[in-house]
Amino acid sequence: MMNGSQSESVSAEAFLAMGRSVLASQPFSALIGAELHALSPGSVDLQLPLTAQLKQQDGFAHGGIVSYMADNALTFAGGTALRVPVVTSEFKINYVRPALGERLVARAKAVHTGSSQAVCTCEVFMVNGGVEKLRALAQGTIATLPDASRKPV
Amino acid sequence: MMNGSQSESVSAEAFLAMGRSVLASQPFSALIGAELHALSPGSVDLQLPLTAQLKQQDGFAHGGIVSYMADNALTFAGGTALRVPVVTSEFKINYVRPALGERLVARAKAVHTGSSQAVCTCEVFMVNGGVEKLRALAQGTIATLPDASRKPV
Amino acid sequence: MMNGSQSESVSAEAFLAMGRSVLASQPFSALIGAELHALSPGSVDLQLPLTAQLKQQDGFAHGGIVSYMADNALTFAGGTALRVPVVTSEFKINYVRPALGERLVARAKAVHTGSSQAVCTCEVFMVNGGVEKLRALAQGTIATLPDASRKPV
Amino acid sequence: MMNGSQSESVSAEAFLAMGRSVLASQPFSALIGAELHALSPGSVDLQLPLTAQLKQQDGFAHGGIVSYMADNALTFAGGTALRVPVVTSEFKINYVRPALGERLVARAKAVHTGSSQAVCTCEVFMVNGGVEKLRALAQGTIATLPDASRKPV
Predict the structure, then answer these.
(1) For B145, which residue in chain C has the nearest alpha carbon?
(2) In degrees to the nearest 10, what's the CA dihedral of B2, B7, B13, B14?
(3) How many distinct structural domains can be found in chain B?
(4) Under 8 Å between Cβ of B120 and B109
(5) CB contact under 8 A, D115 and A141
(6) Is A109 within a domain?
(7) B79 and B1 in contact (C-beta within 8 Å)?
(8) Tens digit of pLDDT for each residue in C11-38?
(9) Do C141 and B89 touch (CB under 8 A)?
């Protein structure tokens, strides 16, 4: 997902800008309008304004949108922790409650970073009138690419 | 997700048509162009033609698209097995390999159906030139709504 | 797992004593020597001294022992959060690193408690010479028993 | 878990005998009495007679015993598929129903084997009077050891 060749001396602003350019290069993320609000090594704040197209008829966000947010936030957290090209190996998500609102916020972090993978956790919140409610909880593995010929996901 | 009030005497064609109307009522599924190819109680074949918008720059499908397919197929399998309004409680997905292709196919089935939940499994394949390759494997829980006031996801 | 009929007025000591009697009533937990070090509604500290029988030949704790610790800690956290008889519905565990040591410590908490289930997380640490290292990370669902006739696990 | 240096020419009997010696070398597996009934590359049948010590007061097998069976069967399936020393990276388990019986049977297989990991699935059955009932469903990742200095779990 992320080339990761940035050096330690990159400023916080440059690091976030780098992440935003990665996100912008994902056509699906651009299609639905995901926004990177914060990014540092092993930590990310990914947000998504909920337009009508992203909701179900009853006004709730589609579960697939919530899982996209978890998947992508976990990958950013793991990719910036490992600092090499990565793939999302697997993740698990619990939808703790349905919730109405205007924005999804996914905050993920790398809990353990080893030589070949990072184990990351993510909380997804629904924001309604400025108030955040936990919408889902996820946990997953981000792995380094075994070799340069294998493409990132 | 699904109202489930269908009787046992519904024809296979009517059952599939009912499922397609559920899928069409999901704005996000309509946005990306998901298609229901087969549906019977506890079993589903959900497909997605991969347009440029759904791919990464390198031509691979975004992981979030693959997880949407698993999430939605698991929910259709569990909802038609339980035959009452349901929510997706949780799922886990392993991305077994990246793959290029023109279509994703998610086949899910209910492996165990109890009084309050169904445990379902799902295989997601990438179709390239008519050949299917396993892209991801998922397993999850679809739960009946505890009460009528709680809205489906 | 837990009858949960305790009232809010139970003292912290009585609550822990109640939990210890639940643990003592599990023959497998008694066999391997699990110990309850802290228990409050939605929160638990479960520990296990590592005898030779619980280790592999190379001195590491068997993965099955680590998953038992996560399973049981998640169930105590969810059961004391829900305060009714519960079953463990599902969980997921990531083994973040192998580790040598003399004791496993599993700390679990209920992150979200609804009417019919609690979503809980758990960290399992290996203690070596008094120093804790993260060994595994787990997340799972503890569900209320659908009816009184169904037995807890 | 498994050294994996066996050649393709090993007989089925020798392969099973090799697996039984691996199982016998796990003190915890010996303590509870696990038995290897079948083993071939990427496929395993692991069984456990349920003595009183492995049951709860109500006669059900402890969830931690069921998760041990899934964990170990997944690892045997992945280890024999990859044929190099492995660690269990992560798994997820759904307990589909409680069940009384005299024996647990865990059957696992490698669904996808790559260069650095195998994704495996496992069904755990309770046997009661010779009749098998599905008790749990699991899915997980078995990874090759990144380097020889890292010890298997």
Answers:
(1) C116
(2) -60
(3) 1
(4) yes
(5) no
(6) yes
(7) yes
(8) 999 999 999 999 999 999 999 999 999 9
(9) yes
Judging contacts by C-beta atoms under 8 Å, the chain A residues touching residue C112 are 96-97, 134, 137
- CA distance linking residue A70 with residue B68, whole number of Å: 11
**A residues 13..52 contacting D (CB < 8 A):** none
Q: pLDDT (tens digit, 9 = 90+) per residue, B21-36?
A: 999 999 999 999 999 9
Tell me the whole-structure pTM to 2 decimals. Answer: 0.92
pLDDT of residue A149 exceeding 90: no
pLDDT score of A3: 46
C31-82 residue pLDDT tens: 999 999 999 999 999 999 999 888 877 788 889 999 999 999 999 999 999 9
Q: Which chains touch D (3 or more CB pairs under 8 A)?
A: A, B, C
Cβ atoms of B46 and B76 closer than 8 Å: yes
- Asked if D137 and B139 come within 8 Å (Cβ–Cβ), the reply is yes
Order of all β-strands in the sheet with B86-95? A35-40, A43-49, A103-113, A117-128, A131-144, A86-95, B86-95, B131-144, B117-128, B103-113, B43-49, B35-40
Q: What Cα–Cα distance (Å) separates residue B126 from each residue in B23, B99, B102, B135, C4?
A: 21, 6, 7, 6, 48
Selection from A124, A132, A38, A135 nearest residue A77 by Cα: A38
Percent of chain C with pLDDT over 90: 76
B137 and D112 in contact by Cβ < 8 A?
Answer: yes
Does D107 map to a domain? yes
Best residue of A93, A94, A134 to probe chain C, by most C CBs closer than 10 Å? A94
User: Containing domain of residue A115, as a range?
Assistant: 12-144
* Residue B131 predicted with pLDDT over 70: yes
In this complex, the residue of C97, C114, C139 whose CB is nearest that of residue A137 is C139
A neighbours by CB contacts (3+ pairs under 8 Å): B, C, D
Using the beta-carbon criterion (under 8 Å), do A114 and C96 form an inter-chain contact?
A: yes
Domain-located, residue C149 = no
D49 and D74 Cβ atoms separated by less than 8 Å? no
Domain contains B131:
yes
Integer Cα distance of A153 and A18 in angstroms: 18
Q: Is D92 near chain A, with CB under 8 Å?
A: yes
Yes or no, beta carbons of B134 and D114 under 8 Å apart: no
- The residues facing B142 across adjacent strands are B88, B118
Shortest alpha-carbon distance between residue D110 and chain C (Å): 18
| Residues of chain D scoring pLDDT < 70 | 1-8, 147-153
Distance from CA of A88 to the nearest CA of D (A): 13
CATH number at residue B28: 3.10.129.10
The pLDDT assigned to A118 comes to 97
Closest partner residue to C119 (CB to CB) among A111, A114, A137 is: A137
Residue A146 has pLDDT above 80, yes or no: no
